[in-house]
Design goal:
The complex is a heterodimer.
Chain A: H1 5-15, E1 22-25, H2 31-51, E2 57-60, E3 64-65, H3 82-85, E4 91-92, E5 109-112, E6 116-118, E7 123-124, E8 127-128, E9 136-137, H4 144-150, E10 153-157, E11 166-167, H5 181-188, E12 195-199, E13 203-207, E14 213-218, H6 224-230, H7 249-259
Parallel strand pairs in A: 1-2, 1-5, 5-10, 6-11, 10-12
Antiparallel strand pairs in A: 2-3, 3-4, 6-7, 8-9, 12-13, 13-14
Helix pairs in contact in A: 1-2, 2-7
Chain B: H1 11-16, E1 23-26, H2 36-44, E2 50-53, H3 59-66, E3 70-75, H4 87-94, E4 99-102, H5 105-116, E5 121-124, H6 131-134, E6 140-143, E7 150-155, E8 161-169, E9 175-176, H7 183-192, E10 198-205, H8 208-213, E11 218-220, E12 227-230, H9 248-257, H10 261-272, H11 278-285, H12 287-292
Parallel strand pairs in B: 1-2, 1-8, 2-3, 3-4, 8-10, 10-12
Antiparallel strand pairs in B: 5-7, 6-7, 8-9, 9-11
Helix pairs in contact in B: 3-4
Classes of the chains: A alpha/beta, B alpha/beta.
Chain lengths: ~270, ~300
């Protein structure tokens, strides 16, 4: 292959980023989670910055503004220690409240993940089973309720595309998608745009202007059958669903030579 | 002249001031700068029925839960970040022994801001449709008096006691932050503003003269502090920004030993019940190893 799945996703995300936006990402650990929640998003934002969005603000861990990743030999794994403290950047959030106010609409977009997502775009990171008597207790809702409620849009990043991750109805609604469509969101008083895209190793799901689910594109080499078989809810008619556009030579050059010459973001 | 009150006391005296059933807020954030020496002493004192109130919790919560000290926790996260899951937390929730009330991360923090302002609740408009609100009867819907739109009143943190591990203090309880700080230290300040019973451990005691040379670093002034103890490396195995690094080896050992109830009992017997105080615990972990975690020889 000319490119990796991670590069395909990064380039695709970069195309959806507009100049002047503020993009937020956390620091995930573990290879698959780190790639989907942190590294692909950072690569996408750095690419957007170099192609069409020079005024993009990148928030690493939510607090380091426009960090200079060229100073790193490896991606940090700790949010609040010397390594990130001393990473050159333009501003640091040292207190809460700080430089941005998410409920007032300062965050344009962010990246989040969970163990379950459903056809309405609801996401769960809290528990499997009834939350009063959970079968499996997970880490908790963390910042997802706020991501999906008040950020301009959310990219749900799912490192594994399996039936158990894409369910009819999530067991616990940590973050709200589009129950009753976009109109439903308005009635709930949610001011942010909600989960606009779901990125997986196989395809991109998306929600339209009315908050309706559709399959935006399927990655090169992945069959429609694979999508249907590995998704736990009805994905609808896949006729006419396009193939995810491949990154251009120039995009690959920027990602590999300019952004990540040491290969610390995405392994090749 | 009458004498000024000295807040310095032993860890045991500090912990004796915490009643069973108290609502406690711990400073630090996630796996950073947690007041572990006090946590150990709470376990040794066999406190029961505590409610932990936080934003992002980790080993301090998991250890107390595993030792049977906690009956409820209100937070957005309990886990050990890159080291893995908080297994005592998971086991006890799944066994129905621990009540969890889920709050979103920054909103959980804002619950302390509500107390700081003397408010019963923090108002927010972004909870509609989530199980955060659907499953929590303590969050009340109300009509925004300006617009008529639905808002939610999220109860203030309402803690009885705040527990913090900080950089330095004088004997009167003027508590100084490191010259640079991040969110874990900001959380220390936030919870210190939210209640009137504040237990602080510090890396080092300094003179009031030194406090006066850098008053801009005094984040918690003396009148707020009720109990103070000097405990170098008192956040072990979590770090103190600019002072001590995370003890990654010990974190991994903790994860290993909390894998089952039996192995965690062994952890408690060895490291907590088997030692008389935090100093003995650090000896057991190894003084050379502890020294090797110091940043720049411990000078900030």
């Amino acid at each position: 292959m000319r490119y990796t799945t991670e590069e395909l996703l990064a380039a695709s995300i970069a195309h959806t980023i507009e100049d002047g936006e503020v993009g937020f990402t956390g620091l995930a650990t573990g290879k698959a989670a780190a790639n989907y929640i942190t590294n692909i998003p950072i690569m996408a934002m750095e690419l957007a910055k170099r192609t069409h969005a020079p005024n993009l603000t990148i928030l690493l861990c939510g607090w380091s503004h426009n960090p200079d990743l060229s100073c790193l030999d490896h991606m940090p794994e700790s949010e609040f220690e010397n390594e990130l403290l001393n990473l050159p950047c333009e501003a640091q959030m040292t207190d809460w409240p700080g430089p941005w106010s998410h409920r007032a609409g300062d965050i344009s977009f962010a990246f989040g993940s969970g163990v379950q997502v459903d056809r309405e775009g609801n996401i769960n990171s809290t528990c499997i089973g009834d939350s009063e008597h959970p079968k499996v207790q997970l880490v908790g809702p963390i910042f997802l309720p706020e991501h999906l409620a008040v950020f301009g849009r959310e990219y749900i990043m799912m490192p594994h595309h399996e039936r158990r991750n894409f369910v009819d109805k999530v067991d616990y609604i940590s973050g709200v998608g589009y129950p009753g469509g976009m109109e439903g969101r308005r009635k709930l008083g949610l001011t942010g745009g909600g989960p606009k895209y779901i990125y997986t190793p196989k395809c991109i799901f998306a929600f339209d202007e009315e908050g309706k689910f559709f399959v935006k594109s399927i990655h090169p080499g992945i069959s429609k059958k694979e999508i249907i078989e590995n998704t736990g809810f009805d994905v609808g008619n896949l006729d006419g669903v396009p193939t995810t556009p491949e990154p251009t030579e120039e995009e690959l050059r920027i990602m590999r030579e300019e952004i990540d010459p040491k290969g610390i973001l995405l392994q090749r | 002249m009458p004498e000024r009150k000295i807040k310095l006391c032993s860890l045991r005296e500090a912990v004796d001031s915490i009643p069973d059933g108290a609502r406690i807020g711990f400073g630090g954030f996630a796996v950073y700068q947690k007041p572990m020496a006090v946590v150990h002493e709470i376990i040794r004192a066999r406190k029961r029925g505590l409610t932990l109130v936080g934003s992002v919790n980790s080993i301090e919560a998991d250890m107390l839960i595993g030792a049977g000290c906690v009956s409820a926790i209100e937070t957005s996260y309990v886990g050990l970040e890159k080291f893995g899951l908080a297994m005592n937390y998971r086991r006890q929730v799944q066994a129905g022994k621990l009540k969890v009330v889920h709050y979103p991360e920054m909103l959980a923090w804002d619950r302390f801001r509500a107390d700081r302002e003397g408010l019963e609740f923090w108002p927010v408009s972004c909870l509609g449709g989530s199980d955060i609100v659907n499953k929590n009867p303590d969050i009340k819907a109300f009509d925004n008096p300006m617009t008529g739109k639905t808002m939610y009143a999220v109860p203030s943190a309402h803690i009885d006691v705040a527990v913090i591990h900080a950089y330095a203090a004088d004997v009167y309880g003027n508590v100084q932050l490191q010259p640079r700080h991040l969110l874990p230290q900001s959380m220390d300040v936030a919870i210190s503003r939210s209640c009137r019973h504040i237990i602080v451990t510090v890396e080092k005691l300094i003179s009031t003269e030194e406090i006066k040379k850098a008053p801009h670093l005094t984040a918690i002034p003396a009148f707020r502090t009720t109990h103070l103890a000097e405990v170098p490396s008192g956040s072990h195995p979590t770090p103190v920004l600019l002072v001590n690094r995370t003890d990654e080896d010990f974190f991994r050992k903790y994860v290993e030993m909390s894998a089952t109830e039996e192995s965690f009992q062994q952890f408690l017997d060895t490291y907590i019940y088997g030692t008389e105080d935090f100093g003995q615990y650090l000896n057991l972990v190894g003084r050379d190893h502890i020294l090797s975690l110091q940043e720049q020889g411990g000078n900030v």
